[in-house]
Write a structure and sequence with these properties.
The complex is a heterodimer of chains A (279) and B (155). Chain A has 8 helices and 16 strands. Chain A is α/β, with parallel strands linked by helices and 279 residues long. Chain A has 2 domains: 89 residues, Translation factors (Elongation Factor Tu (Ef-tu), domain 3, Beta Barrel), CATH 2.40.30.10; 168 residues, 3-Layer(aba) Sandwich (Rossmann fold), CATH 3.40.50. The interface between A and B is medium-sized, with 32 and 27 residues. Bound molecules: flavin-adenine dinucleotide and FE2/S2 (inorganic) cluster. Flavin-adenine dinucleotide sits at the interface of chains A and B.
Chain lengths: 279, 155
C-alpha cells in the first residue's frame, strides 16, 4: 500500500469541493483528497497532473497559498479535451491528482533583492502563490512589483485580488490590457511597456515572468534592455506532458525536460531556444 | 518660469542632446496642465505641438465602430512623449489624446522645431533618430497587441 502511495505515476483521488467561474472559459477548483490524508506541501511554481476519468491528464499549476496547501487550488482555462472535461465537472466530482512536480520559482534567491513579477493572461495563476508567499514574508524582499497584462478588462484574472494587492502600500501593482473601450480607465498596451516604468534596481532584481511564450520572450528582452542580467530572469515554460517525472521525453525542450528541469527555468538557459521555431 | 534647460536635459527623449540644442528647444517650451478627461488634441486636427508628459496618464484613442464609442489604443504616461504628427506631413493628428487623470505636459512648438530641423540637419538628424526609436518601440508594441497573445486558442 505504501509503495502505491509513493508511486508518482499513481493518481490520488480528490473531490471537487468548490468551483468558481473566473472568466468566460476559466474557472478555479478547490480540491480535497478523498482519502482525507494530508495534501502534499508544494513550492510556488510547481504543478500537478490532473486526471479526468476516461479523458486524460494535463499539467496545471498550483495557484493556492504554499503556507496552506489544503485545499488544493487550481485555476484552469478550458482549451481542449481534458480542460474541457474538467470544466464539465461539478462540485462533488472526483478527479485524479499526481504531484506536485517541477522546479519552483527561486524565492530564496530573491530574498534581500527587488522582486519583479510579470504575468500575462493566465500566467497570473502560478504567480499568485508567489504573491501569497511574498505578502506573508514581506520583510524578506526589497521592492516588490507585480506587472499584469490581460487581453481586455473582462479577461482580467483574480480582479478583486489584484485590487486588494494594489491597496498594499508596500507592493507596486500595475495592470494593463491589450484592448479596451472608453469605460476602462486603466492602462492600455502590452505588458512589456510597464517594465520601463517600474521602479527596481536592475542589478539587485529577480524577475519572474509567466505567460504565453511570445510574451515571456519580449518581456525578457525588455528586462535586459533595462539592464536586468539574464541570470536574474526566470520564466515558466509549458509543454505537453505525459509522465511528468522525466521518463517519457514527451515534454522535451532542447536539452531540457520541462516536467523535471522546469517548468521554471533561468532565462539565460533557454534564451537561444526561445529564438528558434518549433522546438 | 520653470528651468526648461534642466527639465529637458532630464527627460529621456532629450537627455542625449547637446546643451546648446537644449537651450534652443527650451525657448519653445511652455507647461500646460489638463484636468481629468480633457482632450489634449483631437484626431484630424492640425498637429503643431510636441508634448512631453511630466505627470499623469494619457489615452490615445480613435473613433469607435458604430455605437461603440471610442476605442482605446494605448496609454502614454509621465516620462514618455506624445505625438509625432507635427513632424510629418500632412501634420494632422492620427488619434485623439484624452487625459485619464490630471496631467501636466511640457508643450514644445512643433512648427518651430520643424524649422530648426530644416535649418540645422545635424539637429534634424538627432531629433529624427530619437523619434525613430519611439516610433519603433510603439510599432513593436502594436505588433504584440495584434498578435493577440492571450487569446484562448493559442495564448
Ligand atoms: C507546467 C504547466 C503548468 C500549466 N498550468 C496551467 C494552469 O495553471 N492553468 C491552465 O489552464 N493551463 C495550464 N497549463 C496548460 C495546460 O496544461 C494545457 O492547457 C492543457 O494541457 C491542454 O490540454 P487539453 O487536453 O485541455 O487540450 P488539447 O486537446 O491538448 O488542446 C486543444 C487545443 O488547445 C490548444 N492548447 C493547448 N495548450 C494550450 C494552452 N496552454 N493555451 C492555449 N491553448 C492551448 C492546442 O494547441 C489545441 O489547439 C500548464 C501547462 C504546463 C506545462
Ligand atoms: S512528461 Fe515525461 S519526461 Fe516530461
Amino acid at each position: 500500500m505504501l509503495v502505491e502511495r509513493n508511486d508518482p505515476m499513481l493518481p490520488r483521488w480528490y473531490r471537487i469541493q468548490h468551483r468558481r467561474e473566473e472568466l468566460a472559459n476559466t474557472f478555479t477548483v478547490t480540491l480535497e483528497p478523498q482519502d482525507h490524508e494530508d495534501i502534499p506541501v508544494f513550492d510556488c511554481g510547481q504543478f500537478n497532473m490532473l486526471y479526468v476519468f476516461g479523458v486524460g491528464e494535463i499539467p496545471i499549476s498550483i495557484s493556492g497559498d504554499p503556507a496552506h496547501p489544503a485545499p488544493l487550488i487550481h485555476t484552469i482555462r478550458a482549451v481542449g479535451n481534458v480542460s474541457n472535461g474538467l470544466q464539465g465537472l461539478k462540485s462533488g466530482a472526483l478527479i485524479g491528482v499526481r504531484g506536485p512536480f517541477g522546479t519552483p520559482w527561486p524565492l530564496a534567491l530573491a530574498e534581500g533583492k527587488d522582486l519583479l513579477l510579470i504575468a500575462g493572461g493566465l500566467g497570473l495563476a502560478p504567480l499568485r502563490s508567489v504573491m501569497y508567499h511574498v505578502i506573508a514574508h514581506r520583510k524578506a524582499y526589497g521592492r516588490v512589483t507585480l506587472l499584469y497584462g490581460a487581453r481586455t478588462p473582462e479577461d482580467m484574472l483574480y480582479r478583486q485580488e489584484c485590487e486588494h494587492w494594489r491597496a498594499h502600500l508596500d507592493l507596486d501593482v500595475a495592470v494593463t490590457v491589450d484592448r479596451a473601450t472608453e469605460s476602462w480607465r486603466g492602462s492600455v498596451g502590452v505588458v512589456t511597456r510597464l517594465i520601463a516604468h517600474a521602479l527596481f534596481d536592475p542589478a539587485k532584481t529577480l524577475a519572474f515572468v509567466c505567460g504565453p511564450e511570445v510574451m515571456m520572450r519580449f518581456c525578457a528582452q525588455e528586462l535586459e534592455k533595462c539592464r536586468v542580467p539574464g541570470e536574474q530572469i526566470f520564466i515558466s515554460m509549458e509543454r505537453n506532458m505525459k509522465c511528468a517525472i522525466g521518463f517519457c521525453g514527451h515534454c522535451q525542450y532542447g536539452p531540457f525536460f520541462i516536467c523535471k528541469d522546469g517548468p521554471v527555468l533561468p532565462y539565460y538557459q533557454v534564451k537561444d531556444l526561445l529564438r528558434k521555431r518549433e522546438i | 518660469m520653470p528651468d526648461y534647460d534642466r527639465l529637458l536635459a532630464a527627460h529621456p527623449f532629450f537627455n542625449e542632446f547637446q546643451a546648446d540644442y537644449l537651450h534652443q528647444i527650451a525657448c519653445l517650451a511652455t507647461t500646460v496642465c489638463y484636468e481629468r478627461n480633457a482632450y489634449i488634441f483631437h484626431e484630424g486636427d492640425a498637429a503643431e505641438q510636441f508634448y512631453l508628459i511630466t505627470r499623469g496618464h494619457v489615452m490615445l484613442e480613435t473613433f469607435g465602430v458604430e455605437r461603440r464609442g471610442s476605442i482605446s489604443i494605448e496609454t502614454i504616461e509621465a516620462g514618455e512623449v506624445l505625438g509625432w504628427s507635427w513632424l510629418f506631413a500632412p501634420y494632422r493628428w492620427h488619434f485623439s489624446a484624452r487625459t485619464l487623470e490630471e496631467v501636466e505636459v511640457i508643450v514644445l512648438d512643433g512648427v518651430s522645431l520643424r524649422y530648426m530641423c530644416e535649418a540645422d540637419p545635424m539637429f534634424g538628424y538627432a531629433l529624427l533618430k530619437h523619434m525613430a526609436v519611439i516610433i519603433m518601440q510603439r510599432l513593436q508594441r502594436t505588433r504584440l497587441q495584434l498578435i493577440d497573445m492571450y487569446r484562448a486558442d493559442g495564448g
